[in-house]
Amino acid sequence: MLALVTGASSGIGLQYATALARDYHTDLLLVSNQEQEQIEVAKQLAETYGVRTTPLYADLSRQDAAETLHQYCVDNRIQVDILVNNAGVFFFNPLTETAMPRLERMLMLHVVTVAKLTRLFAEDMIKRELTEAEQQERVLGKPRKKGYILNMSSMSAWMAYPGIQTYNATKAFIYNFSKSLWYELYPQGVNITVMTPGAVDTALFGLAPNLRKLAVNLTVSIPPEKLVTRALKRLFRGKKAGMPGVINHLSTPLLKHTPDWLVRLTYRWVGQFQK
Asked: CA nearest 202: which of 254, 152, 159, 151?
């Protein structure tokens, strides 16, 4: 099997690539806009876990990024069995103070490219013919999928919160898009799973190291390796969605009913910790 992982040179994407190589012995097509880091990651994973890795530099915020990436796979006869749409960006900023290119980059990465990549590779997966061995597994009652797609949303999909107004809106798109597609794709042999984690201990949110450590100790933030382990288990079990952490499950209903005064207060407080 081969997995295509976007944003694979660091953070959660690197954890996905590592777990797929280590735990599932999956060959990898690693896509990132960090060219040198991507090459080093691919080399290290290949040497450590004995899988084939292909690093590919790409700016997935471009209008035609999805089509270009898909055509690369077609031209090189790369069959993608697992698609992990992980690449993303984050910023904490008032909308009217956000530069237009920065706004467009987030919209392209989280909405347009995710939708297009899902569309293109899901079609390929549906058309794929199962091998005789795989067909026999189905006859014996063992579920066998033609492909798997994992999309990364966020708990912020349920939050109306200033400063992250574009981020949470795009994550809401990914959440509803993916869950709706589960019903379309599952009967055709393709499983799509969407994950909605809360805070994850990466550099994405721009918090100082001491605050990141405190958040993990208080279980407000989850280490990326734990998130990835749970996400892949849900993906291969055919689940629609997943949210790691008991606290996240308990707090989600409260996010929809947070008083306005508390939102404004936390907005001012959180803003001072952003880089």
From this structure: 152
Backbone torsion region of residue 11, taken as left when φ is above 0, otherwise alpha when ψ lies between -120 and 50, otherwise beta: left
Domain range 2-271, CATH architecture: 3-Layer(aba) Sandwich (3.40)
pLDDT at 149 over 90: yes
Strands (E) across the chain are located at 2-6, 27-32, 53-57, 82-85, 147-152, 190-195, 199-200, 221-222, 241-242
pLDDT value of residue 134 = 57
The one-letter code for the residue type at 88 is G
Tell how strand 27-32 and strand 53-57 pair up. Answer: parallel
Among the residues of 8-81, which ranges form H helices? 11-24, 35-49, 65-75
CB 152 within 8 A of CB 167: no
Six token digits for residue 109? 């990465």
164-174 per-position pLDDT tens digit: 899 999 999 99
Query: Can you give the pTM of this predicted structure?
Result: 0.83
